[in-house]
Write a structure and sequence with these properties.
- Helix content is 37%, strand content 14%.
- With 287 residues, it is α/β, with parallel strands linked by helices.
- A hairpin with a 2-residue loop joins strand 9 and strand 10.
- Helix 3 packs parallel to helix 10 and helix 9 packs parallel to helix 10.
- The longest helix is centred in the middle third of the chain and has 19 residues.
- The chain is globular.
- It starts with 5 loop residues before the first helix and ends with a strand.
- Keywords: Hydrolase, Metal-binding, Signal.
- GO terms for molecular function: hydrolase activity, acting on carbon-nitrogen (but not peptide) bonds; metal ion binding.
- It holds the Pfam family Polysacc_deac_1.
Length: 287
Amino acid sequence: MRRFSLSTMVVGCALLLSACAPAYQAGGFTPNKSTLSTPEVTVETVEPTVDSPETPSTPEPPTPEPKERLAHGNEATGGPNCDVEKCIALTFDDGPGDYTAQVLDALRAANVPATFFVMGRQVKAQPELLRRAVAEGHAIGGHSWSHPQLTKLNNERLMHELVDTNKEIEKVVGFTPNLMRPPYGAVNHRVRKVMADQGLAAILWDVDTLDWKDHNLDKAMGYVRQQTQNGSIILMHDVHEIAPQAVPLIVKEYSAKGFKFVTIPQLFAGKEMLPGAKHFNRFKVLK
C-alpha cells in the first residue's frame, strides 16, 4: 500500500475541493462545466502516524485563464424562472456605438439586464463599452464583423464574419459567445449548418421596434405594444437615439404588467438552445 503523509493528503484534498467549487463570473456568466478539463485526483485514506509533521499552510490554487473559465460563455445564471414568470428579453444590435453608453445607463437605472449582439469591427474600435456591458451583467452575442447578408457570402467569407468576430470578443472579455444574430435575420440551410458547426444558436426576434427606420419613439412603442407577449425578444439598435429613450418606457410599462426582464440565456433557461436553429422567442424555435 502506498502511504501518504498528512501534508500530502491535505494538499490533495484542497485541490480536489477547489476543482469542484462552482465558478461565478461578473456579468452573470458561468462556464460550461463539460468544457473544463479537471484532472481526477485519487486520495487514499490512511491513519496518520503519531510523529506526522505539522500541516503546512495550503497555497491557493492558481486562477485559470479567462478562456478556460468561460470557454462557451453566456450560460444562464440566476434571474427569474421563466417557466413560471412572464419574461421579456431586450436585445440591441450593431454596437458598440454612439448610444451604447446611454443604453447601458438606462438599463442600470432600470435595474434590468439585456443582451447585446455586437459587430467585430465595432468591438475592435470601442472595446471598453463591451467590457462595461459584461461587467454590468449583460449577455453578449455576435452580429458578424461588418454586417453583410450572410446568405450572399461564400463559406470562406462567412467563416471570417463569424469566427473573427468571436475571436475579437474573446480577446476583449475572455469568452467566446454561443449566441449569434445574423444581420437582417437572413439565414439559409447552408448558413445555419456553418453556425451549427461553430456551436452558435441563431437568435432572431418577434418584436421589431424599427428604430433604425422610423427614428420615432412613439412608433417604436406602438410596435412594442402590438407585438410583445410572454417570451418575446425585442429588437433595438444601440447605434440609434431611440433605444435609450425606449428602455425606461418599456421597462416601466411591462414591469407594471408583471413581466420580468432577462437576458437571452435566462429566457431559454430550462430549454435546450440548439446550434443553428432559429430562436424567435422562448416558445418558437425552428430547427
